[in-house]
Amino acid sequence: MKKSILFPGQGSQYVGMGLDVYEAFDEAKEVYQEVDDVLQTNLSDIIFRGEASNLNLTANTQPAIMATGVAIFRVLQKKNNLKITDFSFCAGHSLGEYTALVCAESLSLADAAKILRARGQAMQSAVKLGEGSMAAVLGSEIKDIEQLIKESNYSTVEISNDNCPGQIVISGKKLEVDECLIGIKQKLSKKSISLPVSAPFHCQLMKPAAEEIKDLIMNLSMKNPLIPIVSNVTAEAVTQADEVKQLLIQQIYKRVRWREIIEYMFKNSNDSFLEIGPGKALSGMLKRFKKEIEIKNYNNREDLEL
């Protein structure tokens, strides 16, 4: 049976994530310390003991989630003799792709922390606070949402995340997203939930953010990953560092094709998954696929002790 490793993205963060792992294992301490040093800020204190409002600032959230995923992965490497090369594929949901690249030894931890801090700042500043919005649509088919958006002639509303069967996220300017949600309820009889985010991610409104950090990404020192990374942009395996860089730029403003990523893994005989990092969002998504799947989640010290 082929296996894949998955890393979560924004929305999985919570104050205290990784603290019990940090306290128990030197490998985790080293990860958080390196991230603190390279960012010249006590991010680990924000993660472990800070206010949720501070952790939820995108510029903090993105490196924080990455650091926690890498910390748990490195403990598993030492404690359980986990080898990235024992797996067929690696993937991360949005910013989680950077965690995947670090664990696949394509990108250094320090560079991932720096680029995610810059990425978060650029994405936050691309649209004025309060002008953008995101909402999850439940129980709908992607073709129905696409058709409704097309018929309504919205200038900014897009599907930003195709997460799993029955879970789609739309992004755009708030007024248009709100109007779209009314249409979804009236025409499709589907429920939706406005998401507590600070900007409309993964849509064309994020193009200025991509332009802002384009050169930073292209100048990153990257190696080819030890195992294929399944890209958020293409939902296909990528093995070359130069191609990874181009896709990381596009990833900022293009749809997260997570459902297709998982289906790609299924087509390549992957039925066993490890989710490594805070929360269990990706494990929850996997359970929505009508397929027998083996899922193991590593989120805290208790998971590591099993």
Task: Supply database-style keywords.
Alpha-Beta Plaits, 17% strand, 14 helices, alpha/beta, 2 domains, 306 residues, 4-stranded antiparallel β-sheet, single chain, 10 strands, Malonyl-Coenzyme A Acyl Carrier Protein, domain 2
Description:
The protein is an alpha/beta fold. The chain is built from 14 helices and 10 strands. A 4-stranded parallel beta sheet has the order 2-1-9-10. The chain has a 4-stranded antiparallel beta sheet with strand order 4-5-3-6. A hairpin with a 2-residue loop joins β4 (158-164) and β5. The two termini are 21 Å apart. The model has no long low-confidence stretch (mean pLDDT 95).
The succession of helices and strands, N to C, reads EHHHHHEHHEHEEHEHEEHHEHEH
- Give the tally of structural domains: 2
Described by strand count, sense and barrel closure, the largest sheet is:
4 strands, parallel
- What would you give as the CATH superfamily of the largest domain? Malonyl-Coenzyme A Acyl Carrier Protein, domain 2
First-residue to last-residue Cα separation: 21 Å
Task: Please give the CATH architecture of the largest domain.
Answer: 3-Layer(aba) Sandwich
What proportion of the residues is helical, as a percent range? Answer: 40-55%
Kindly estimate the percentage of residues that lie in beta strands according to DSSP: 15-25%
Q: Return the structural class.
A: alpha/beta
Radius of gyration: 18 Å
The total beta strand count reads: 10
Principal-axes geometry comes out as globular
